[in-house]
């Protein structure tokens, strides 16, 4: 293939290829030189008084693969001198940084693979040292994280109808937690703060005035009192929405508590059937295939109590889906509470008490129909990231990696080419 076409494949307009030095089944070595004869002086920015002053040992630069082979560019290290400023400097190439052996395009491709998996995986893909790829990854993390966070905050500030999502996830379950702040409409993660207690949240608000400068229409969160107190202090005019799926979880727990008590009273055969198919009681009946609907009817026939609490749970799902406005939602919620009062069981009474305490926040869902479903999806990505990176101990790298992981839909490789 003519060298001009190889040059176009490499995407390096500043270089001119001269010859193929060597080529085997794994590597290809290319000799190239700059197209221009001189470069401007770094002090006076003029080429008029610049002259060439010899050359140092040639540089060997690893570039993107060509024809399935690793490509290496052999380029001269030209010495230049400016007679006006009386300084000497070395030729600066745009496609590779000073004193680096890997091109910017190669570094960008390698870092992209590492962000999606691990540095070890990227090193195997590129056939490069793992320590080198790890160093590239660590260098790129703060730059890319800062870019994505700036873009996310800019979108949040410019949004006319901003809806935030607040939720926590575990670093070590039962011991250490982080709290994420999400832009639900923009589908981005704005920030990550350590802890989930009210003192931690208030300290974050004091240290980050940009957060208090936001003007959200609504904030979706679970039923943690600390979150609702914090949001009411920071954004008193925002609609506080109790997340639908967290609220629905209380009702499903009541159904399962009833199922466990009923299960103990059945014959061994019926007990085994109810235990093995207990998950059929959780989803709405309309979402089940016909085969599972038939199995569900068998489970409900085991106990009138189980059937009544399941119907109570189904009524709650219908209330969420069918209430057309807030007024109708309040009336429907009151009817649903009365329906639950007819069920004489401790778990149901406990759930009803919680629902009454949070009635306004639950009904607010029908003012602004947003949930934290996308936030829960990001939590799965965060958990996968923590497992891949073995719970990075450096807090700055840990935070930067999570922010990149959660905002990767807006990620672009060319942003690394700087």
Automatic annotation (TrEMBL):
Query: Ranges for the Transposase IS204/IS1001/IS1096/IS1165 zinc-finger domain?
Result: 40-85
| InterPro entries given in the database record | Transpos_ISL3, Transposase_DDE, Transposase_Znf
Pfam families for this protein: DDE_Tnp_ISL3, Zn_ribbon_ISL3
**In which domain of life is the source organism classified?**
Bacteria
* Domain Transposase IS204/IS1001/IS1096/IS1165 DDE stretches: 164-400
Q: What is this protein's name?
A: ISL3 family transposase
């Amino acid at each position: 293939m003519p060298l001009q076409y190889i040059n176009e494949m490499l995407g390096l307009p500043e270089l001119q290829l001269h010859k193929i030095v060597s080529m085997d089944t794994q590597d290809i070595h290319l000799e190239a030189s700059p197209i221009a004869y001189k470069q401007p002086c770094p002090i006076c920015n003029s080429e008029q008084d610049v002259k060439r002053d010899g050359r140092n040992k040639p540089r060997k630069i690893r570039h993107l693969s060509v024809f399935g082979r690793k490509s290496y560019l052999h380029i001269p290290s030209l010495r230049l001198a400016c007679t006006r400023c009386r300084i000497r400097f070395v030729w600066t190439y745009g496609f590779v940084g000073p004193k680096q052996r890997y091109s910017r395009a190669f570094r960008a491709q390698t870092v992209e693979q590492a962000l999606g998996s691990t540095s070890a995986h990227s090193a195997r893909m590129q056939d490069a040292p793992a320590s080198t790829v790890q160093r590239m990854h660590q260098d790129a993390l703060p730059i890319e994280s800062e870019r994505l966070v700036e873009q996310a905050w800019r979108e949040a500030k410019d949004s006319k109808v901003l809806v935030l999502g607040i939720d926590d996830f575990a670093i070590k379950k039962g011991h250490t937690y982080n709290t994420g702040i999400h832009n639900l409409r923009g589908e981005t993660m704005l920030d990550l703060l350590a802890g989930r207690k009210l003192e931690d949240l208030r300290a974050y608000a004091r240290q980050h005035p940009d957060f208090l400068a936001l003007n959200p229409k609504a904030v979706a969160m679970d039923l943690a009192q600390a979150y609702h107190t914090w949001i009411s202090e920071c954004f008193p005019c925002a609609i506080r929405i109790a997340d639908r799926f967290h609220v629905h979880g209380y009702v499903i727990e009541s159904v399962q508590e009833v199922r466990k008590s009923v299960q103990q009273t059945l014959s061994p055969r019926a007990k085994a059937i109810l235990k093995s198919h207990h998950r059929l009681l959780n989803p709405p009946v309309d979402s089940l295939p016909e085969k599972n609907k038939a199995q569900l009817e068998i489970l409900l026939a085991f106990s009138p109590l189980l059937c009544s609490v399941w119907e109570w749970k189904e009524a709650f799902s219908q209330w969420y889906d069918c209430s057309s406005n807030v007024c109708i939602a309040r009336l429907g919620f009151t009817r649903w509470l009365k329906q639950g009062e007819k069920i004489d069981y401790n778990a149901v009474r406990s759930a009803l008490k919680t629902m009454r305490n949070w009635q306004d926040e639950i009904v607010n869902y029908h003012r602004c129909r947003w949930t934290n479903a996308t936030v829960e999806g990001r939590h799965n990505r965060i958990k996968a990231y923590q497992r891949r990176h073995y719970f990075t101990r450096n807090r700055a790298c840990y935070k930067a990696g999570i922010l990149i992981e959660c905002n990767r839909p807006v990620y672009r490789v060319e942003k690394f080419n700087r």
